[in-house]
Amino acid sequence: LSRRYRSASPPGPAGLPFVGVAYQIPDDKQWLKFHEWTLRYGDVVSSTVMGQPTLILGSFRAASDLLDTKGAIYSDRPDAIMAGELVGWNRGLGYAHGPDNPRFREFRRLFQQFIGPRACQDANILAMQEEETHRLMLRFLRDPKNFYRHPRESTGALILRLAYGYEAALDQGQDPLVEVVEIAMQGFAKASEPGAFLVDNFPVLRYVPEWLMPSGGFKAVARRMRRELDEMYDLPFGFVKEQMEAGKARPSFTLSYLEEKRTPTPADEELIKAAAASLYSGGADTTPSSMTAFILAMMLRPEVQERAQRELDTVLGPSWTRLPTFTDRAQLPYIEAIVLEVLRWNPAVPLGLAHRLTQDDVYRDWVIPKGTVVWANVWSMLQDPVVFPEPTEFRPERYLKEGGTLKELERHEDPSIIGFGFGRRICPGMFFAMNSILIGIATMLYVFDISKAKDENGADILPEVDFRGFISHPVPFKCDIRPRSTEAASLVARAAAQE
Ligand code: HEM
């Protein structure tokens, strides 16, 4: 290649001096704007956002070429001033610099060891997921109108068990630990929201002293959120220590690490606190987004629901004697196809998380400078009509062969690969999340009928089908969730009571 070609940047929208395209990017559904640019300029789009070179990858091929294959140089994260530096979430995994940072490596090792593909087959972890699913069903049974809240509470409870062996009360309103974690997570969501704090766009603002800002400005907010995060680090950790001293600690992520270290130093303790908090920040909002999207899809596609229920009835038998378990999985290809389609139809993290390039690179005919922030537009890939015909339709059949068994999917056709990100930053909770969603969906379909709510005249209330947020959730909708039979209802009540 001649030098002239090799020095070119990928095409992309021209921006204003310094701010670049910052003001062309909307506050919500940034992936749609990025997708529009992909259609106009190609699958690798370059631009500048507040002086920061930025690359948007709109195809699986480009994302895999750069973030998977060249993962050694594409696995850093950009600085997050408010959420990362000022509030302190950069002590955890999601905002940690990588890939050569020893702390990052230790976090990834821990996650792999505890919830990697093999660890996720551990009978204790599977039993924990089945039990929490039974409790989730009990919530739907008791309070079907508030269905939107239940998956979130249930995921929160599951992660508290996984991370600390802590058993949250089923009615979590009064649970002190749930409250501490929820408050810290609200800070995480607010501080991470793109554009919510000016300091993220103008980092020099972090040098302005707090007393110069009205009511302390963002610095006072950051100080409060940091205190809340510290509580989230310390309180559940204190619980595990107490339980250990009393000789009754339950298996958990924190316990395994403390036992591995035998005599943990304060630095070890700080690291495991941060790792456990990262489990929560990665998992708390994502799995519930998939469960709510699933409920919406079932309302829209009653025939999908019926086919899934026939599959479950065949495997479990007609007499409501037990609920689905992970051992049924191989016999439930249609349920598995629904899980894949949920991950595709509403990817919980449509833009993934930003990666950052740590040295200059050449890709195709272009030079990509060190420090470039890279977004892989997961949404674009999962809505590609060439790979997924009529992509807005919820259609599990796309993953099945004629006889109803699952197709062998290639990586670019597999939402359970694309939806979890790329390279050395790929979601470390993906196997755990897939299992939670699978058992949640199978059990819910076995026990409940999901249908449109009715208005006062008995007519169907049609839901608005729209998804919003950086972690993308369906906008609120009404829905009718009722047990398929009285036997189904008592089976749920019995199963949840036994645990
Ligand atoms: C439907 C469920 C989920 C989806 C779609 C999802 C998706 C993602 C994506 C796209 C990323 C960014 C990957 C990248 O940078 O390329 C990510 C990162 C992460 N996820 Fe998940 N996730 C889910 C559930 C979970 C769960 C249940 C946990 C923990 C138990 C978790 C923990 C994390 C963590 C800690 C990171 C940061 C990894 C790093 O920075 O190295 N996620 N996830």
Could you give a short description of this structure?
With 499 residues, the chain is of the alpha+beta class. The protein is 48% helix and 7% strand.
If you had to describe this structure to a student in words, what would you say it looks like?
The mean pLDDT is 93. The protein has 19 helices and ten strands. Strand 4 and strand 5 form a beta hairpin. The chain has 499 residues and is of the alpha+beta class. The protein has a four-stranded mixed β-sheet with strand order 1-2-6-3. Strands 4-5 form a two-stranded antiparallel sheet. A two-stranded antiparallel sheet has the order 7-10. The chain binds protoporphyrin IX containing FE. Protoporphyrin IX containing FE binds next to helix 12, helix 13 and helix 18. This is Cytochrome P450 monooxygenase. Its main location: membrane. Its cofactor is heme. Belongs to the cytochrome P450 family.
